[in-house]
Amino acid sequence: MARTAWNWGEFMGSFPPRSTPLTVMIGCFIGCMFNPVVLIFFTLGLFFAPIQAETGWSMTQLSLVIPAETAAVALMSPVIGALLDRHGPRRVVIPSTILVGLAMGLFHLVQSIAGLYLLFVLLGLFCSGMNMMSFAKVISAWFDGNRGLMLGIAASGTGIGTLLVSPLTQWMIENWGWRSAYAGLGAILLFVSLPAQFLLLRDRPAGTGRQESAAHAAEPAISFAQMARSRSFLLILASFFLQAGAVNTAGAYLAPVIQENGAPIDFAVLCVSVFGAALFGSRLLTGFLLDRVFAPLLCAGVFSAAALSLAILAAGGRTDLALVAAALLGVAAGTEGDALGYLISRYFPHRQFGRVYSLVFTGYMISISIYPVMTGVLKDLRGSYQIPLIVMAATFVASAALILCLGRYDRAAETPASGHG
Questions:
Q1: CB of 385 within 8 A of CB of 316?
Q2: Cis peptide before 205 (omega within 30 of 0)
Q3: How far is CA 286 from CA 202, 254, 325, in A?
């Protein structure tokens, strides 16, 4: 009896055999719920104080873990983009999830600031495959007409994750210590997110491979030089570069900023939860609106509101306004996550999605590398977060102005991938 050769690549690409749009959406939702932004970035503000208390490292030193991780993500993003276009998201997301989950158990081995930087570099390299880029490519392949809404529903997992993970992380830090808290976050990846990706995630609907190949053959090929010179690419890159560092740094530093204004840690955690709730709600609302409102106009309005939120935080004072600021900031964080994938899918051909997204995302991560260092240095020099908050508010305004300069969607990029939605 002849034996059939085992092909791991075919198994990874074809399992599960009977995926539906609903099951794929659930897989993407859970993946976004426990993505690196939620587990690593938005929890950083909760870890700073206990790490400082144990080690005595300054805020400037601790702030450098962010560019250490984000520079690694920026370095890996073009590679991940090419892998996504060539092998599909499933074969990228699952190994990435395993590596990050295991790496988050290594904080018990960190004994020096250099060791901390090295571990965050490893986390950045490993987590690149489980960012929104991977899930946005899945959604773009499964849905067309309601693509914005589907992106919003999947990405709303980030808001739910932030809402749940922030208080859970604080509880783990208080009861287990910060090193074990990181291990606990890694366990969430391995025992919750990983099974969901393995059982539910599929790159594209069954039987669409040949249709996609024919559709892609009709799409215009875009060279790197042509893309880099295109007005749409440069405007999206510049706008998201300016706002990415601002929204992510403000989110990561939200708890210490609120505490600096005189609020207790419990209220600061509440503000982070409000931020997460607003992020969740805006993911859904933004996804709905993207299919009905011109995306650049929507982004400009939200980025302007984010500038107002940072101005409120810079002014300090009333706690009720701090809650409003946290909500506005959460709306911005939710909108930019949906909008980036949507804009790329509407201005560039689908077969180039991974490559284009990865290049913009590289700029996005470089921005996130710069802003936290600036924030930490200015905090140490001036003894306050006020100046960096004002700077970030100004960059939000500039980002809004740039995104408004985008023209009409590229009709050549609207090739349906699957027919769902």
A1: no
A2: no
A3: 24, 23, 19
pTM of the model: 0.71
Residue-wise pLDDT for 43-97, tens only, equals 888 898 899 999 988 877 887 888 888 888 888 888 888 888 788 888 999 999 9
Q: Who's near 149: CB < 8 A, 6+ residues apart?
A: 287, 288, 290, 291, 421
Angstrom distance (rounded) from CA 42 to CA 255: 10
In 201-294, where does DSSP find H-type helix? 209-218, 224-229, 231-252, 254-260, 265-290
What are the DSSP calls for 54-109, one per residue? HH---HHHHHTHHHHHHHHHHHHHHHHHHHHHHH-SHHHHHHHHHHHHHHGGGGGG
Fold of 20-204+222-413: Growth Hormone; Chain: A; (1.20.1250)
**CA neighbours within 13 Å on the CB side: how many for 211?**
12
User: What is the rounded CA–CA span in Å between residue 221 and residue 351?
Assistant: 9
* Residue recorded with tokens 């929204």: 247
Q: What is the DSSP letter of 204?
A: S
Residue 420 DSSP symbol: B
Domain boundary assignment for the chain: 20-204+222-413
With a CB cutoff of 8 Å and minimum separation 6, the contacts of 203 are 13, 88, 89, 90, 138, 141
Distance of CA 417 to the CA centre of its chain: 24
